[in-house]
Write a sequence for this structure.
């Protein structure tokens, strides 16, 4: 739950200008997540979100700098707890997740910048990953299966 909520928070702050914890809490509730202000406050600390000044003169939450080991660790935890299967079809990798988790897993996957990946798309419980070649798709699957 926590890792899914964290991924959704990162999605929300990248898509919307979020100025307050109350705004973030409302967006999360709109997305079907149950949380309290105290939970949001801890999530902001855990995710190392910072308020930055935008070009419009208003502050908004953004993801602070994080080490690549933090990103890999969070991705591994989310991936292992959410993914049920991984298969290839030529240069396309198909990942099945728990219901409602595909977009969070896909966003986390995108943040890892895998060189084999050309692009991704996520639904509710399925992710399609276009790879540069069938061989790279197989290599990606091997790497991802180690996380399950």
């Amino acid at each position: 739950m926590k890792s899914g909520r964290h991924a959704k928070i990162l999605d929300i702050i990248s898509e919307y200008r979020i100025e307050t914890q109350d705004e973030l809490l409302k967006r999360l509730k709109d997305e079907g997540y149950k949380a309290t202000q105290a939970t949001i406050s801890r999530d902001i600390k855990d995710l190392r979100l910072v308020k930055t000044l935008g070009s419009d003169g208003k502050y908004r939450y953004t993801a602070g700098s994080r080490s690549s080991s933090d990103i890999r660790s969070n991705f591994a935890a989310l991936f292992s707890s959410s993914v049920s299967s991984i298969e290839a079809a030529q240069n396309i990798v198909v990942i099945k997740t728990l219901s409602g988790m595909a977009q969070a897993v896909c966003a986390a996957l995108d943040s890892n910048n895998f060189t084999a990946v050309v692009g991704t798309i996520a639904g509710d419980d399925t992710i399609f990953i276009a790879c540069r070649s069938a061989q790279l798709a197989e290599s990606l699957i091997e790497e991802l299966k180690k996380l399950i």
Q: What stands out?
A: The first strand starts at residue 49 and ends at 53.
